[in-house]
């Protein structure tokens, strides 16, 4: 058994270009999966940080308008028998020492504190509606200074209200800690008691809304991850198939001497396992870096939804699942080449007799029918307004083209052989092998097809994402003009 593994690995290393392409293909898909997860985790983690030390809070009072709400609503919430605690706070973007920062005002903050991104001196200058104001500050604890990527100014609630221009009865949010399993009851009971300028919702609502706003970023990345994993699978298929052809005599001899199917398949599966593990490990590392880069360039729309600058929060729990997914794709891709090994009798291989089927005249009608059905179902699903259904439809279309191509592989081989024959005597010699290698021609064409699909999908998804985000951020004609935008920047 060890000798079979060593033989397979030696044959695998004899084709370095295919090995590199296979590893890179698997790594690309795994990297995008890890990166998407990192972006979502970073947004959700930044929202959780914004809640502050009230880790037990499950409900949040928020203002219906940018001007805050009356603090009496917090008092009404505190009077509810199921509300254990309520912490009011002010959350507003401000300019501190010329940099954008987040102002956090809470009653439990004894003195002004600054984060790590600015304010190196004993005081900072805050630009307020009434003009610049110098505030004496101290350094914030590390666990708090990470909020808003370090650009944060913590102050007592009264100080924050004065800087923003609020009166003492106005706040922006309040975190409520309620008794277990009473959230729905509290929301229903307080709904009628709150003033019109305040609303009560679950603390997870902001996370859910942020996840919805991430769809223009998340959906294209997941689509590209799917396409990349498919490409990696076909590259592994081509690599293992080529390796099987290189060692077909050795494998046939092993089978003739009594080797079991499990022993023969183990060597080829070890190749796929090695390619899958190498690609997945590389992909996890690349995805970790890619996720950080994406978080750094997230549009201001996502930051505003999160309520603060999104800070990178890597989710290590996704690493085992990503490695398992990449490895599984590689192992599944190796099944077809292994199956083809067992379809040829050992005596045919050892006597150098090959089956001389007529590839140009023997298409696979069942395969073509299955692929056509996948194309039809995918085309219908792709027209759906649901992103998940449309993505599945696009994946079905992609798979359908590949399956139909497999059914038409004899025609593809015949067309390629006819074309290569025009290259003179060398082309005539190559024609003989190409006509008998329909699957190899199909796997090569499929790899090129999927690679081109990645390029097209990447370009189209990027343009769609940019146009979508630009459209959301653009002012509505006739409502907000450049003059109004300049005035807003000066006030902030």
Model description:
Strands 1, 3, 4, 5, 6, 7, 8, 9, 11 and 12 form a 10-stranded mixed sheet that branches. A two-stranded antiparallel sheet has the order 2-10. A hairpin with a 2-residue loop joins β3 and β4 (99-106). The protein folds into 2 domains: 1-53 and 208-356, no CATH class; 58-202, no CATH class. The relative contact order is 0.14. The radius of gyration is 31 Å and the shape is elongated. Helix content is 63%, strand content 13%. It has helices at 2-13, 16-51, 72-78, 142-145, 157-164, 183-191, 204-213, 215-246, 248-256, 261-296, 300-306, 318-333, 335-342, 346-350, 365-382, 387-407, 409-421, 425-435, 438-473, 482-491, and strands spanning 59-63, 69-70, 83-96, 99-106, 113-114, 123-128, 131-136, 138-139, 152-156, 170-171, 173-178, 198-202. The model is unreliable at 353-360 and 472-492 (pLDDT under 50). It is built from 20 helices and 12 strands. With 492 residues, it is of the alpha+beta class. α10 (261-296) crosses α12 (318-333).
Give the N-terminus to C-terminus distance in angstroms: 71 Å
Strand content: 5-15%
Q: How much helicity do the residues have?
A: 55-70%
Tell me the total number of β-strands. 12
Summarize the structure.
The protein has 492 residues and is an alpha+beta fold. 63% of the residues lie in helices and 13% in strands.
């Amino acid at each position: 058994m060890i000798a079979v593994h060593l033989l397979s690995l030696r044959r695998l290393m004899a084709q370095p270009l295919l090995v590199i392409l296979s590893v890179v293909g698997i790594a690309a898909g795994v990297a995008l999966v890890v990166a998407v997860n990192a972006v979502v985790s970073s947004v959700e983690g930044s929202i959780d940080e914004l809640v502050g030390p009230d880790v037990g809070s499950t409900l949040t009072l928020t203002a219906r308008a940018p001007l805050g709400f009356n603090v009496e609503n917090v008092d009404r919430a505190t009077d509810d028998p199921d509300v254990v605690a309520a912490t009011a706070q002010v959350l507003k973007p401000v300019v501190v020492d010329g940099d954008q920062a987040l102002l956090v005002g809470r009653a439990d903050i004894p003195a002004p504190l600054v984060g790590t991104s600015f304010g190196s001196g004993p005081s900072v200058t805050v630009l307020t509606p009434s003009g610049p104001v110098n505030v004496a500050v101290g350094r914030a604890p590390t666990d708090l200074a990470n909020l808003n990527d370090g650009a944060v100014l913590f102050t007592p609630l009264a100080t924050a209200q004065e800087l923003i221009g609020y009166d003492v009865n106005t706040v922006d949010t309040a975190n409520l800690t309620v008794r277990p399993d009473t959230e729905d009851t509290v929301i229903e009971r307080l709904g009628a008691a709150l003033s019109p300028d305040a609303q009560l919702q679950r603390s997870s609502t902001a996370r859910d809304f942020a996840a919805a706003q991430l769809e223009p970023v998340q959906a294209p990345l997941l689509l590209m991850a799917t396409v990349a994993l498919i490409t990696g699978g076909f590259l592994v298929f081509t690599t293992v198939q080529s390796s099987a052809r290189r060692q077909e005599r050795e494998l046939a001899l092993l089978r003739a001497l009594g080797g079991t199917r499990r022993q023969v398949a183990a060597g080829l599966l070890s190749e796929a396992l090695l390619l899958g593990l190498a690609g997945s490990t590389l992909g996890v590392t690349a995805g970790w870096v890619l996720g950080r880069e994406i978080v750094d360039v997230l549009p201001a729309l996502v930051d505003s939804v999160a309520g603060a600058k999104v800070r990178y929060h890597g989710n290590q729990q996704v690493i085992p699942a990503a490695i398992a997914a990449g490895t599984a794709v590689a192992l599944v891709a190796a099944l077809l080449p292994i199956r083809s090994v067992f379809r040829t009798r050992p005596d045919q291989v050892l006597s150098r007799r090959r089956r001389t089927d007529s590839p140009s005249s023997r298409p696979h009608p069942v395969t073509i029918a299955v692929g056509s059905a996948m194309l039809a179902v995918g085309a219908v699903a792709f027209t759906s307004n649901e992103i998940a259904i449309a993505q599945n439809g696009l994946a079905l279309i992609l798979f359908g083209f590949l399956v139909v191509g497999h059914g038409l592989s004899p025609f593809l081989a015949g067309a390629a052989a006819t074309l290569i024959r025009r290259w003179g005597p060398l082309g005539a010699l190559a024609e003989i092998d190409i006509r008998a290698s329909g699957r190899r021609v199909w796997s090569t064409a499929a790899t090129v097809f999927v690679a081109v699909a990645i390029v097209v999908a990447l370009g189209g998804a990027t343009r769609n994402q940019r146009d979508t985000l630009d459209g959301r951020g653009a002012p509505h004609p006739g409502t907000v003009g450049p003059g109004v935008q300049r005035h807003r920047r000066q006030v902030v």
